[in-house]
Design goal:
The chain is α+β, with helices and mostly antiparallel strands. The protein contains 18 helices and eleven strands. Strands 3, 4, 10 and 11 form a four-stranded mixed sheet that branches. The protein has a three-stranded antiparallel sheet with strand order 8-5-9. Strand 1, helix 2 and strand 2 form a beta-alpha-beta unit. Helix 1 crosses helix 13, helix 9 packs across helix 17 and helix 17 packs antiparallel against helix 18. Pfam families: SBP_bac_1.
Length: about 450
């Protein structure tokens, strides 16, 4: 299965089509439906704003009865709920993938399946990317933009030096542990590094917990509470503790965020870390990775969970929006986000523009928005412009579809991660860290924050 260049097309296109939004209500001229849509780039992003304005003009030309007003409003967890409850939000809202399940459960957003299904290509959507936007009855509530899934990034050159197969990344966390130890022993480099600061330690612990079959939060009687003080997170932290102190396979520098890790990886100092294919661009373009052929990525290794963390932005319609405006909003969502990602011609044109820059990375995959047949068409259209080694991304592309995509915690995710940062840091810097005690204290701290946020 090869969904590569097409996925680049979707991801890069999403940057150009940057979204839509506005801040006014009501209709314009008689018979015209006016919708306000979030996602419009700020005035400082002149190319993005120009592309957005052209997209609006093209849409209104095709749909003369609909007026689109863009909004630069961005998601703010401190004000979002109040605006939504008060009916003051736009007709199309953009939220991170942490939010849809909570919004669906609280009946704050509209089911869009009936309107989406009017699009001829609706059934070609990749069910995997719609699942986090759906309820248990299968109703779909939104349209995703540039979805991603975490995997295991690895240095193919260090694998080869350590006598490991660069074409076969570890599939389980036991295999990660063994590979990390071997890399450390045979190359002197850190076999595996786990981020631990700037809320990213908690973020990566969420990934590791999902892979072990656990959760970070759970719904308890309509309100979310901490769910991580259980065996999956305990096993994940114990694994990190053993790799750090028993195996000595994680190096000496344990206070890292994503930029630190990718910078060190680009310099050939790290064997493996959890990340997405998109970190290739950071390694190459931001940190000057000389041996880009050393970049490889596989699916998230598993330890009983068959899951990985996903993310991206999602466009939804508030429950308070009228049926007429909901229908207009779905037409906009399809035009702005689904149709361009589905069109091989658009993907090829964007790839061609990117390929003109010798420092670009054309062909880096994201999750496919559509089924294998459609992605194959997009891949073929983009193929002439690809300048990365597609085979080095193949393990991720082939293994990720078998995993459940789990979003980040739905309530106060960043505050939860901040608490869990301290747990990860303790495990990685204190040989005698008590995992049970750390989780128990974190559970108390997180439940206090969650209760305050859900009053």
């Amino acid at each position: 299965m090869k969904h590569t260049a097409a996925l680049l097309g979707c991801a890069a296109l999403a940057t150009v089509l940057s979204a839509c939004g506005s801040s006014s209500t009501g209709a314009g001229a008689s018979g015209t439906v006016t919708i306000r849509v979030q996602g419009m780039p700020p005035a400082t992003d002149k190319p993005g704003l120009a592309a957005f304005e052209k997209m609006v003009a093209d849409f209104e030309k095709q749909h003369p009865g609909i007026e689109v007003k863009g909004s630069t409003t961005v998601f703010d967890p401190l004000t979002f709920s109040a605006k939504l409850a008060g009916g003051r939000s736009e007709e199309v809202i953009r939220v991170p993938l942490t939010e849809p399940q909570g919004l669906i459960a609280r009946k704050q957003v509209q089911p869009l399946t009936a309107e989406l299904a009017k699009w001829a290509h609706y059934k070609e959507f990749n069910p995997q990317v719609l699942r986090p936007l759906s309820d248990t009855a299968g109703q779909v509530y939104g349209v995703p933009q540039a979805p991603f899934a975490q995997g295991l990034v690895y240095n193919r050159a260090l694998f080869a030096k350590a006598g490991l197969d660069p074409g076969k990344p570890p599939a389980t966390w036991d295999e990660v542990r063994a590979a990390a130890k071997r890399i450390a022993e045979r190359t002197g480099k850190a076999g595996f590094v786990h981020e631990s600061k700037s809320n990213q330690g908690g973020w990566q612990l969420a990934m590791l917990t999902y892979a072990h079959g656990g959760e970070i939060e759970k719904d308890a009687g309509g309100k979310y509470v901490a769910a991580f003080n259980a065996d999956p997170a305990r096993k994940a932290l114990t694994l990190l503790k053993e790799m750090r102190w028993s195996d000595d396979s994680m190096g000496s520098n344990q206070l890292n965020d994503q930029n630190d890790v990718i910078k060190r990886f680009a310099a050939g100092e790290i064997g493996m870390y959890m990340g997405t294919p998109g970190t290739y661009r950071l390694a190459k373009m931001t940190y000057g990775m000389a041996d880009t052929d050393a970049f490889g990525i596989g699916p998230m290794p598993q330890a009983g969970g068959r899951a990985t963390l996903t993310g991206g932005d999602v466009y939804l319609v508030p429950r308070s929006v009228s049926a007429e405006k909901t229908a207009a909003a779905v037409k906009w969502l399809l035009f702005a986000y689904a149709q361009p990602a589905h069109d091989p011609g658009v993907a090829a044109e964007r790839a061609k523009q990117l390929a003109a820059d010798p420092q670009s990375a054309v062909g880096v995959p994201t999750l496919p928005m559509f089924d294998a047949a459609q992605q194959a068409e997009i891949d073929a259209a983009v193929k002439p412009y690809v300048n990365v080694k597609l085979e080095h991304f193949a393990p991720w592309l082939e293994g990720t579809p078998a995993l459940e995509l789990k979003p980040e915690p739905p309530v106060q995710a960043q505050q939860v991660y901040a608490v869990l940062d301290t747990v990860v840091q303790a495990v990685l810097t204190d040989r005698d860290a008590d995992v049970d005690a750390l989780l128990a204290k974190a559970e108390t701290d997180v439940n206090t924050k969650l209760a305050a946020a859900q009053r």
